[in-house]
Design brief:
three-stranded mixed sheet, 20 helices, about 5% strand, about 500 residues, Neurolysin, domain 3, mainly alpha
Length: about 500
């Protein structure tokens, strides 16, 4: 290796470190915007984020970076992976004009506040001009990225490299048949009794901390705050999560917490040597969601773990009016509700399929923002058999489109599919896992996931990450088998 190649590699790594450190600062501004920032600061914050986005864009598109990438030679496999990510990032960012990147950052920062206002007021008209602007900017960005190819695929690539909208649509059509058949059988059976009562905010937050630690979240390098829409933020030594509290629905808080802890454990468990580089964060949103969903569902909603949680809740709140078996059934109660984040495992993927189809149509220009509400409501009625009663239960419920995250939604279902595969492999490797879950020790599973998935960060491509962990190529089969077995037993068919 020539000295030139050596120095190019060293210069590139130093440049990446500083860029990734600045990106973490940007992430912290976003976290603050959703948690602590005074509402009156929204305009100022949008300018701050646009300015920082300008700095990041300049660093990501610096011609010098391109020169280093052309000649740098990596010393090892991790270095090769870093080059792969950096080249993809350089190609992506040099295609997007700097003024467009800054305008997107400014608009989506403001849009989030406008969406939150519209949602609180159930006022679609208040949000529509902003949504139309965000979609227009993202379509411009997609056109720059796609270079004549499919606009939606270009956006999808930001969240799940290596997969197309057509591949996701094909997987969804295969899944839909079995999910709908299961749903019909479940809804035809008598429902279990729900959990009723009031559960105080402080008790819920105490228990959410206990849950976070039980799953392996390191609170010395994290924190739990409240937000309208629970999320996880950061990587390495600063990974923060949020949850929300509804005093008549404690499962909302507990399972939001467990879900976000799945994301957070992934980020906390990546090898420290990858920090401040493209390898130092989760490899894709699909793989990220596989961690949050396996924590929340396959482990968190399992009979052994809910048995432990029942004991913890009884200790915190007194008699729940349900025994451990009744509690397990209440946690897994299936009903066609409006809210995606509160959806049971049977309905969840139907929520995603609907959003995927709608956003694909929006980006293609086949659906206008002005027609989104009626399209949403019609589709929801068709898929769930329930009429949307107000916009905050319909098209205004999710934050994603306000901040321009088109292409993000399908990764939730992809995460469910990957989680199904991982749980099949995990059960084969850890035959005593149910006893650990019953004792409130899901960290045993977290350790398995750390070794198989989490520590690798961005070392492998998304699908390869899952295939290596499982020992087989991932597909929707294990997830659908798990759902059929679990809910068939629960509902007696």
């Amino acid at each position: 290796m020539s000295l030139h190649h050596n120095s190019a590699w060293g210069d590139l790594v130093a440049h990446e470190r500083a860029t990734w450190a600045l990106a973490q600062v940007m992430g912290r501004l976003g976290w603050d915007q959703e948690t602590m920032m005074p509402r009156g600061a929204a305009g100022q914050r949008s300018e701050e984020m646009a300015a920082l986005e300008g700095v990041l864009h300049a660093r990501r598109t610096d011609p010098q970076r391109g020169e280093w990438l052309a000649v740098a030679q990596a010393p090892d496999a991790a270095g090769e992976a870093l080059l792969r990510h950096a080249r993809r990032s350089y190609a992506r960012n040099t295609r997007v004009p700097a003024d467009l990147a800054a305008e997107l950052a400014r608009t989506t920062s403001l849009a989030q506040g406008i969406w939150a206002e519209a949602r609180a007021r159930d006022d679609v008209a208040h949000f529509l001009p902003t949504l139309a602007r965000v979609i227009d900017l993202r379509r411009q960005e997609a056109a720059a990225l796609a270079q004549g190819g499919d606009l939606y695929d270009a956006l999808l690539n930001d969240y799940e490299p290596g997969i197309t909208g057509a591949e996701i649509a094909a997987m969804f059509s295969r899944m839909r048949l079995r999910v709908v058949a299961l749903r019909e059988k479940v809804l035809g059976a008598p429902p279990p009794a729900p959990l009723r009562g009031e559960f105080g905010r402080e008790g819920q937050l105490r228990l959410s901390r206990k849950l976070a630690e039980a799953f392996g979240y390191d609170l010395s390098k994290g924190r739990i705050d409240l937000a309208v829409h629970p999320f996880s933020s950061g990587s390495g030594a600063d990974v923060r999560i949020t949850t929300r509290v509804n005093e008549v629905d404690p499962f909302n808080c507990f399972y939001s917490t467990i879900h976000e802890v799945g994301h957070a454990c992934y980020e906390q468990n990546i090898l420290e040597s990858y920090r401040f580089s493209p390898l130092g964060e989760g490899v894709s949103m699909g793989v990220h969601e596989s961690q949050s969903r396996i924590y929340e569902n396959q482990m968190g909603r399992s009979r052994p773990f809910t048995g432990w949680l029942h004991g913890q809740m009884t200790g915190e709140f007194g008699d729940l009016g349900l025994d451990a078996e009744g509690f397990y059934r209440a946690v897994n109660r299936v009903q066609p509700g409006f809210i995606r984040t509160e959806a049971d495992e049977v309905h969840y993927n139907l929520h995603i399929m609907m959003r995927f189809d709608l956003e694909r149509a929006l980006i293609a220009g086949d659906l206008l923002p002005a027609d989104l509400e009626s399209a949403w409501n019609d589709r929801f009625q068709h898929d769930f058999g329930v009429a949307v009663d107000r916009p905050s239960h319909g098209m205004l419920q999710d934050v994603h489109w306000s901040v321009g995250l088109f292409g993000y939604f399908p990764t939730y279902s992809l995460g469910n599919v990957y989680a199904g595969c991982l749980m099949k492999a995990l059960r084969a490797d850890l035959p005593g896992i149910d006893a650990d879950l019953a004792a409130g020790r899901p960290t045993v599973a977290t350790e398995w996931l750390r070794g198989k998935v989490q520590q690798h960060g961005g070392l492998f491509e998304p699908r390869e990450t899952i295939a290596r962990a499982c020992g087989f190529e991932p597909d929707e089969g294990p997830l659908l088998d798990y759902l059929d077995a679990k809910f068939g037993e629960l509902y007696g068919f």
